[in-house]
Design brief:
By secondary structure, the chain is mainly α. It has 13 helices and no strands. It has one domain (3-288).
């Protein structure tokens, strides 16, 4: 298979991930009706670990020390992003939480610059800038003050950006099934610790919440992160971050369709800006071809 074809398949894989994650907003909203945030994280990662154990049982038997090291780093970054996002949401508004989380699009290329002095393509910078403006139009309200919740959410964005960056770094040398298994196992263990610390031991989920968590665990976690890991073998981390930012677009679409949220001019403009950012970042593929 030609390299250009692999790149396009990688982009298609990442777009699929964003569509599924967009549906995850609705699932999370339903799950939160009768479950706490750490209960949701614990269950979704437990489901992911079980499935990845079955799928990768042969590979797991031969895990190396280097793979364990990489998997723990990736899982810690993933857990940090989810945990800080949830905690930050308690001290800030959902719109500001969503916008500040989306800044991981801008942070990814600068992590690459700081760690490896990796040159940032101009098109990626333009695409990242457009994506963050689109996320701002889509999510940000009139209050621009910075509080404790905002700082925690920015830290969450750094963790998600680091997860995207590390995935791009590790997929070339670590088996995807092993890397994803270790990532989910680490996040599951850390979620269990969070569950103990917060004392969220009483589980009384409704049928709707259980179905929502099943979706989050099987589809929105196991399938998506495995697909992300494989797809990032062919798409660099900056373009990956820009493409993954379309999660906000699909999240808005599913919220309108399933939760009957009102469509506003801000939604339309923000979604168009993010879509344009993805297209701009992909122009270089055609140029190379």
């Amino acid at each position: 298979m030609k390299d250009s074809t692999k790149k396009y398949l990688g982009v298609l894989g990442l777009l699929t991930v964003t569509i599924i994650w967009g549906g995850g907003f609705v699932a999370s909203d339903l799950a939160l009706e009768t479950l706490t945030p750490f209960q949701i994280m614990f269950i979704r990662f437990m489901i992911a670990v079980v499935i990845m154990t079955v799928l990768g049982r042969d590979s797991i038997r031969t895990i190396t020390r280097e793979e364990i090291k990489c998997g723990i780093m990736l899982g810690a970054a993933l857990f940090g992003g989810f945990a800080l996002q949830i905690i930050g949401l308690q001290y800030t508004t959902p719109s500001k939480n969503a916008f500040l989380t989306a800044t991981n699009v801008v942070i990814v290329p600068f992590i690459a610059l700081v760690i490896y002095r990796k040159k940032i393509p101009v098109k990626s910078l333009i695409g990242a800038g457009m994506a963050i403006v689109g996320a701002a139009v889509l999510s940000l309200q009139s209050d621009f003050s910075i509080g404790a919740g905002d700082i925690l959410t920015l830290a969450c964005a750094v963790c998600f950006a680091l997860q995207i960056f590390l995935t791009g770094e590790f997929v070339g040398k670590i088996r995807p099934t092993v890397l994803n298994f270790l990532q989910m196992t680490t996040a599951f263990v850390l979620s269990g610790i969070g569950l103990i610390v917060t004392g969220s031991f009483h589980f009384a989920p409704s049928t709707g919440s259980l179905l929502a968590v099943l979706y989050l665990g099987v589809v929105s976690t196991t399938i998506t992160y495995l697909l992300q890991t494989v797809s990032q073998k062919y798409v660099d981390e900056t373009k990956s971050a820009i493409i993954l930012s379309m999660e906000a677009v699909f999240g808005t679409v599913f919220s309108v369709i399933l939760l009957h949220e009102d469509v506003t001019v801000r939604m339309v403009i923000g979604s168009m800006l993010i879509l344009a950012a993805v297209l701009v970042s992909e122009v270089s593929f055609s140029a190379k071809k």
